[in-house]
């Protein structure tokens, strides 16, 4: 304890309380901000938006490619079916265009007769 300068101990305690109160009023409140600054938040938001946009673009391209592949497969099936149909029609043409068949139908159903002097044979 300090020595008694003022002579009265009660006066000394009052002065210490008064000086303590003054010290408390001079103390400034410092607010500490926790969290992320606004600029950094905007940067994160922009980054997330860019990632979402790029992902959406890539997914839309994959969907488009899948659609094209589906269309290609369908077209291949149609082409194969058409080739088979063409083959069967060629066989039918060959069968129906045989000379013996035509001659038989002409003689039996149409009553035609063949004169060898006027017949011309064309080959293909």
From TrEMBL:
It is a single-pass type II membrane protein. The chain crosses the membrane at residues 42-64. GO terms for biological process: cell division. This is Cell division protein FtsL. It holds the Pfam family DivIC. It is found in: Cell membrane. InterPro entries: Cell_div_FtsL, FtsL/DivIC. It comes from the Bacteria. The keyword Transmembrane helix applies. Essential cell division protein. Its main location: membrane. Keywords: Cell cycle, Cell division, Cell membrane, Membrane, Transmembrane, Transmembrane helix. Belongs to the FtsL family. NCBIfam families: ftsL_broad.
């Amino acid at each position: 304890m300090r020595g008694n300068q003022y002579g009265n101990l009660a006066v000394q305690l009052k002065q210490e309380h008064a000086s303590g109160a003054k010290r408390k009023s001079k103390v400034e409140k410092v607010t500490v901000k926790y969290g992320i600054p606004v600029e950094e938040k905007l940067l994160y938001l922009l980054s997330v938006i860019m990632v979402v946009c790029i992902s959406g673009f890539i997914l839309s391209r994959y969907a488009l490619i899948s659609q094209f592949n589906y269309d290609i497969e369908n077209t291949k099936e149609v082409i194969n079916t058409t080739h088979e149909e063409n083959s069967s029609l060629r066989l039918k043409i060959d069968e129906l265009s045989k000379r013996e068949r035509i001659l038989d139908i002409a003689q039996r159903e149409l009553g035609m007769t063949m004169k060898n002097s006027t017949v011309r044979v064309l080959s293909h």
